[in-house]
Give the backbone structure.
Amino acid sequence: MSFLHVDLNSFYASCAVVKSNGQYCFDTPLMVCGDPKRRHGIVLAATYPVKRTGVRAGMPIREALARYPGAVMVAPDFRMYMDYSDRFMRIVRCYSPLIMRYGIDEAYLDYGGCERIFGPPLDLAHKLRERVKNELGLTVSVGVGDNMLMAKMGSDYKKPDAVTVINAENWQKLIWPMPVQSLMYVGKATAAKLYTLGVRTVGDLAQTSATLLKEIFGVCGTTLWRNANGMDDTRINCDPEQQKGVSKSITLSQDACNLEEVCSALLMQTEDVAYRLRTLGMRAGVVGIHFRYGDMSGEGKQRTLSTPTDATAELYDSVRSLAKELFHGRPVRQVGVRVTKLTAEPEQLLLFADTAHERRLRLDRATDALRDRYGTEVLRRAGTLCFDHDEIDDFTPFVKN
Ligand SMILES: [Mg+2]
C-alpha cells in the first residue's frame, strides 16, 4: 500500500516569484498581502527568508513588517493561483486514477497498483518533484507513506523541494518527538487539553491509554490515539470535485444594476467553469446561477440540460436565460455559476450532426490550448473585458478540514 502527498511550497509567494520574470527569486524576502497599499490586512503567504523570521500566513501586515522590515509586498492574484493549481493537478493526475485535491496547493495520490507502470513510489515522488519544477517553476515537498496520514506527515517533514518517506519502521523515530500539534486534527483546543494531561509530543499521545483518550475526547480520542501510532485507513474514493460539481463566483467592486452587467460577470464565471470541466474531462448535466445582494441575502436558480455539455457557449445560453428569469432590477453584489451532475461518459454521437455544436467545441478546444500554454489571461470573450482580476474571489472551492 502506498500513498503520496504532494504539497506546493509557499504557493502564493512562489507563484509571485515565478510570474515576476526574474525580478524576484525564491530568496527574495517577499510577502503576498491582502492589501499592501493600505498596510492593513493580513499576510497570505511569504517566501522562506521571511518565514524564517516567524512570519506566518494570517499574521497582520504590520506585525510581519516588524519582523522583516523592508520585505517586498505584492497583491494576491487568485486567477493565477487557480491556473497554476490546475496545471499542478494535471501533472499529478498522470500517475494515478485515485487522486484527491486538498485545498488549492495539495494533492493526495493513491499509488496502489501503479508501481508496475511508473516504478517504485519513491522514484515517482522525485519524478513529480522534478516535473513540477521544470514545467511550472514551482517547488513541492512530497511525502511517501503506507497511508494518507504518513504521506501527509512526510510532505510536512522537510520543505521546500524535498521527498520524505514515512513508514511503520521510521514512524516512532521521526514523528514521536514532534509536538502533538503537528498531528492532523490536533488544533489549539485539543492541544491545550492534552497538555493538562502531560501529553506534549506525538509519542506521549501514542503511549497514553486509548481508553482514557476515548473517555475524554469521545470517538475523536480513538482517532487521536490511532493517528499518533501511525494508523489511518482513510481511502480516496474518487476526485471529490467530480462528485460535487464545479463553481465559480465573483464579488463585484460595484453592484451590477442592469442585466447586461450581470450577464457579462456571469459569462466570465461560465468560461472558467467550462474550462475546468474540460480539463477534468467531464460534462455537466445541471447548471445553476446565484446572486448575492448588498445585505448578504441571496437567491439562485438552476436547470437540467437536455444533453450534458462542457461547451462554454452552450452553458452560457442556459446561464443567460436563468439570469433573465432571476434578475428583477435589484443591484447585485456577487454572482456565481455552478454546474453539477457531472459525467465522464463520452458524448453520444448525434444521428444528424449538429454543426453549430461542433464549431463551438472546436472553438473551446482552440482557446483551451492557448490557455494551457499561456495562462487563463490570454483570451477573454469581449463581453468580459470590463472586469479585472482584482474583483475575483472565491477561488478556493475546496474546503480544508
Ligand atoms: Mg503548500
Notes: The longest strand covers residues 298-309. The chain has four domains: 3-8+79-166, 12-77, 171-228, 243-391.
